[in-house]
Structures are given as structure tokens and as C-alpha cells.
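Researcher: Going back to the complex we discussed earlier. I've cleaned up the inputs and rechecked each line, so this should be the final set. Can you rerun the prediction on the complete assembly and write out the structure?
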Amino acid sequence: MTSETSEDRAEIAVIGLGNAGLPLAAVIADSGIKVVGVDVNRQRCLLINQGKNPIPEEKGLDGLIEKHGGRKLVATADYRDAAACRTFIVIVPVFVDENYSPDFTIMQKALRSLGGILKKRDLVVLETTFPPGTTEGPVRDLLCHASGLSRDDFLLAYSPERIMTGYSISRLKEFPKVIGGTDEQSGIEAFSVYRRFISNLHQVSSARAAEMIKVMEGCYRDVNIGLANELFRICGELGIDFFEAREQACHQYCHIHLPSTGVGGHCIPVYPWFLIKEMERREKFESCRLLRTAREVNDGMIDYWMGRILEQCLKINKPLASVKICILGITFRAGVKEFYHSRNLALAKRLAEKGLDVYAFDELLSSEEVQRWGLRCIDPRQADLIFDCFNLRWLRAEDWPERDRAAGPSAEPASADCKGCL
Amino acid sequence: MTSETSEDRAEIAVIGLGNAGLPLAAVIADSGIKVVGVDVNRQRCLLINQGKNPIPEEKGLDGLIEKHGGRKLVATADYRDAAACRTFIVIVPVFVDENYSPDFTIMQKALRSLGGILKKRDLVVLETTFPPGTTEGPVRDLLCHASGLSRDDFLLAYSPERIMTGYSISRLKEFPKVIGGTDEQSGIEAFSVYRRFISNLHQVSSARAAEMIKVMEGCYRDVNIGLANELFRICGELGIDFFEAREQACHQYCHIHLPSTGVGGHCIPVYPWFLIKEMERREKFESCRLLRTAREVNDGMIDYWMGRILEQCLKINKPLASVKICILGITFRAGVKEFYHSRNLALAKRLAEKGLDVYAFDELLSSEEVQRWGLRCIDPRQADLIFDCFNLRWLRAEDWPERDRAAGPSAEPASADCKGCL
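Model: Rerun complete. Updated structure for the full complex:
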């Protein structure tokens, strides 16, 4: 393989230049390896090739794209431009459908296109978070079918992205990363390619194990956020300040998470379903009870907060239907303009559904953007009651702007609740 | 209070010289304060006064008892010997009954005796783990009743023990300790007394908050062990090595615990019930679902392991009823001769109940001691199948003695699963 490498020829293709793929492609380029980035978004490709970073919130990415965009890192919408590469890293999103089953539509499209250029002895590494068994199963089948190659003709491995939006570059440079092959040779080969640009790299016994590792992390977070939510409710019932108790309960052996309106985003609320669905399909209902309960507890938090909001309304001397309620923050977490499974948005909609006079305000969104989500926008100063979803705080119009976030429970960044979002 | 202190008069009494009380009394004495230790066990008192440590497994305690026993630390079975003290620290066990409700029998007896010597302006600090609200509620009522004092006549606070058997001295010297009063004055006074012998001391707003902090820690561990057990089962189902996956999944934001036969001992399996029972009494069934599920998942592990043992029996070419099964380890955890809620013991009994030819072996126990628990003892070399409960390993007679524990999943000390056992 090394003999084919020249100054001018890209060795590695990164398929998908989204929030996870672009930082990875930039880090590979920065290690001195020429990369072709493939993305369906032509506008994004153009920007990158001009040295302009399409994800400005990603720390350190500006410099890398400026330096390597159009040079060591060439973006293209055409798979044929990557045909000479020998390693293909696929990092396109997999979402879930309304039944929480993975929706492989985008992935399938990418794999079919990749199949069109795949050659014998090429290495394919998947990075998208998958239900365990996906790489060695449907991914391999699809690649075989699309390329006409047999399963032993190409090498196939899995290495889950572990980035955190905003910190992806430092994550790639410092955080442990795991990689596993669908067979021994694939594992060895993938490890030797990745170690050229990932310093903290760990080989595991199989692609399946590497897939499980990523899903387990999501389950850990979901269950622990569920526990925090449950303990928060119990503290409220017992007249105890949860945040005071949490601060003193946490130590090197005890990591109680932060409560919330539930868990949103493409990652944490989704990954437990990968295991729950598979266990339930196998009729192993006893083997996923805690994961399912945690999901239900977290999703049940919007009902809890609806109850708490109504309690606050009791204190306002107005007919309930005319109490102007402002939901402050409707994205799934603070600082990120993403709505997937946003519990804050769901809470606002649930209140509207009940006939309450509910409005939304989100500093990331224009009035029109709020309306696009079926909600009315309000200046918080016009509201009778403001519920700050990110900090779980009640504000009155007169408290606005009362924005010292560091003083609230969010002193720990809410972003710690989400790692690795595509 | 200081004016009453002299070289010869004890200032502080520690009521209960068990696994938690004795190390605390020794640490107080070592800080230069004269202590009276009160314990119903006269033999234990005699030993202590002779400078002999009744808990030799407690690191660093030998030296302290040798130095202070009978001098700075005087043990007695008679509360009257502590009558001149102005601070009373109560650290006697509270167990749970068969319905998981706290059984205050021993505590009540201690508080009644304490009431007989309690004086105006004395300070009482409880250290036993309680359901939140116990100190300001039943404990205060009982002390008032037994002493004839009114509730404002004495100071009352709570500071949960956070020791770990074997490491209590270092825990007391280094680990953060919290303290909270039933009223402001009690909190201030208790903090100022405790800071004389506890360096890492944190004041919290109330006794109730301090009680919750300790219970929350137990809940965190129970839920996380439940999660580890569930992920272990799922990995087994998916053909993934849980221990390999866990090793790579754990990092600074992810703390997946160790799987087990369930959770035993007086602490972790008990504390969640303090909250579950209280929430269910209040008909807040929705507020304790995760805690209850985790309890059920952990308690359900003996059924799971029974199934796994039967699978192993399939491989043995003998009628099932004559397969000699050895359960290796029946205490609730390795290295501690305690049986309360031992899931290992429960597993052995469950197998016997089903008519299997089950035996037990525990290196801490004699054959007679095993028999006292209703089980037959066996030399593991005579067994067809050995299940090592502490390391979740299968052994055959020919593997015995195969005792390199560091090689198994128990490389992390199983003791990390239990903190603060009375």
C-alpha cells in the first residue's frame, strides 16, 4: 500500500463531512496524510476547499481548514474523486424512526456509492454509532452487493467516533479511541492506519465489541441522567435541595449526573433503544428492564415539569388560561441549534396541547424559527412565568435579563450530557 | 464548654464501637480529645481498654488502639461512665426488616439509654445511615421522651459515616465528610466539634440533607451495579466479552461498574428502599421507578446465574441430579465474613431448592459454619462444576486450586462495591 502513496495522491477518504467527519478529516490531513472528503453538500465542499470552516463553533477547526482545505484535504461530492484511496472512513448519520429502529437510509446510500469505487484489499472503517453486529452484518452485505466483491476481498473494521461537538479536535488528539476488525486481518490493518493520526488508540477484539463500547457509554449516561432525575424528584418531595446534596454526594466513587427536562439529541436517548429493541426481538425482556425504565423516566420528565409549571401558576393571581408561560430554551441543549428529541420543545408543545397560553424564547432562534416549530415567540419580559429549561429555574418578567448562568445548577456545562453527536 | 474540659475528663462519647464506631473513636482520641466509647459488648470493651484491637482487618487501627485504648479512649458498657461528656456521637446499626422497612430496635435502645444521661445544651450527632428526616423526627422525639428535655434543650445533628471496612482510618482522615444540624445552632456547634478531628469536613444546610447525601450514594451504586449486570447479560446474549468492552468504555465521563450475583450487605441493597418505601407511602410511585427496577434487576441476578449454571451442566455427561455443583464463596462479598442479603448464599439455596446436588465452599468458613447456613460443604476438587461467585468464573475440579484472582474480572477490588458498612 505504501508504494502507491505519493505526495499528490490521497490515501484516505472520509465519507461524510458533518460535525464528526470534518474534524476527523482535518486531523488526518494535519497528520500529513492527504485526504479526500466526500459529502453530498456541494456548498460545504466548496467552502472547505476555499479554506473556510463550515462549523465555526468547533474549537481549533478554523485553523486546520484554513491550512489544509483544498490542499491536504480536498472536499468533493463525487465518489469517483476518491477512487484511488485505499482506506475509506464512513461517518454519515444513522437516525431512528418513530419506533426507535435505526434508519439506515443515508448510510445505505453512502455504502452503495462507496461500493461503486471499492477495490480488492481496500480497507473500510465505519465510525457511525451502530447497534452491535451492524458492521459485520448489514454493512458488509451491502458493500459486497454494491461492489461485486466477496466478503474476504476487502478489509472491514469499526471505530466509533467519541467526539463532543465543540471539542472534537481535542477529543481526536487526546481521548482514547477504540478500533476493532470484522476479522483479525482487518483489525490489524485498521489499527495500523489509524495509529498514524490517532495517538490514544486501543485495539479491541472485534468490530462488534467496538460497536458495543460506544452504545454502552450512551446507556451509562442515559441511566445516570434518569437516576439524577429520579433523585431530583425525590429530593423535591422530601424538601431537600438536590443540588446541595449532589455536590456533597459526588466524589471519586460517586458521579451523580444533572437532572433535566429529559434527554434529547441524536445520541443518548437513541443508543439504549439499539439494545432494548434487540433484546425484545429475542424475547429477552428481562435483560433490558433498567435501560427501558431509564428511557421512560427521562421521557416522563416533561410530564413532571408540566406539573411543576402548573404549581407555579397557582401562585399567579390570574385565570389559568391567561397566564403567559414562557419556555426559555427549546433546542435539545443549550448552545446547540438542534431539535432532535428535544424535551424542551416537547414540553412547550405539551403545554400548548393542554390549552395553556404558552410561548417560547430561545436566544439561538429568531421569532420565525420558533414559529416554524409550531410555537409562538414572546419577549420573556411580557411573560407571567418563565421556565428556564436548561437551568431548571423559574424566572419572573422582572428577573429578566437575569442571565448569570454560572450561579445556577448549570455551573457544570450542560454539554457534558452529550458526547459524540453526528 | 471548653472551660469544663480538663486532662482527665472525656469530652466526647461515641456510642457503638462496631466497625464504624471504633475507628471513629480511635481517630478522635488520636486528635488529642479524650473519648468514652460505649458498647454493650463487655468483652470488646475489655479488649479495647487493654490496647487490643478487636477489628484487626482495619488498617492502622492496631496502632491507635494500642496507643489510646484504656487511656485517651476508654471503653465501657455503662452509659453512666459517659455522663460528663458534652458531645454524644451515636453510631449503632439500623437494619431492615423483611419488608425492607428500617428496624430501629438497636438504635432505640441506645437512644433511650443516652436519654438517661443527656443534659441541657449537650450535642448529639447521629452517624448511622437513615431515611432522610429520621434525625429531626423519630430520633429527636425519642431523645426528648427518654431525657425529659424539650426539643430546644439539646443540640442535634447528623453526619453520615462514609467509611469502607478495611480503610476506615484513611477514610476518616482524608475523605470528605458532611455534617448538618436539625437547626442552625446545632449545625454550627456540630461543625465546630467535628472539625477538631475531621480535616475534610463540609457543612450542609440540614441534618435531612446530610441523611439524603448518604442514601444517594448507595442509590448511585445500586443503580450502576444494576446497569453493569444488565449490560453484562446483554453482552452475553450478543457474544461480546463484557469485561473487554467495559475496560474500553470506561473513561473520565463513564464509570461502568462490575457485574455480580446481585448486591449484598447491609448498605447498598438497603438504602434504595429507604427512598422507595417513602415514595410509595406517599403514593408517588412514578418517583422511584428506576430505584425499584435496579433493586429488582440486582435481586434477579440469582435467577440469571441459576440459568447459566444449568447451561454449564448441559456440558457434563451425567444425569443432572448427580452433577455436583460447588458454589465458591457464600459471604456477601469476598474477604468479609458477612452474610446479610448475600446473593451468593441465596444462589446456593435456590439451587438446592430446585433439587440440584449443590455444595458450598468458602475459604473464610469452616465446614461447620457452611452447614450452619443449611448447606453442605465440599472440597472443590470433588465437584463437577465450580462457580466462583466473586469472580463470575467457571472452574472445573482440575482447575482447582486456580487462584490467581488478579487475572479475572476481579482485578478491581470487589470491595469497591461496598462503602460504609456498619
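Model: Worth noting: The longest strand of chain B covers residues 177-181.
Researcher: Good, that matches what I expected from the previous run.
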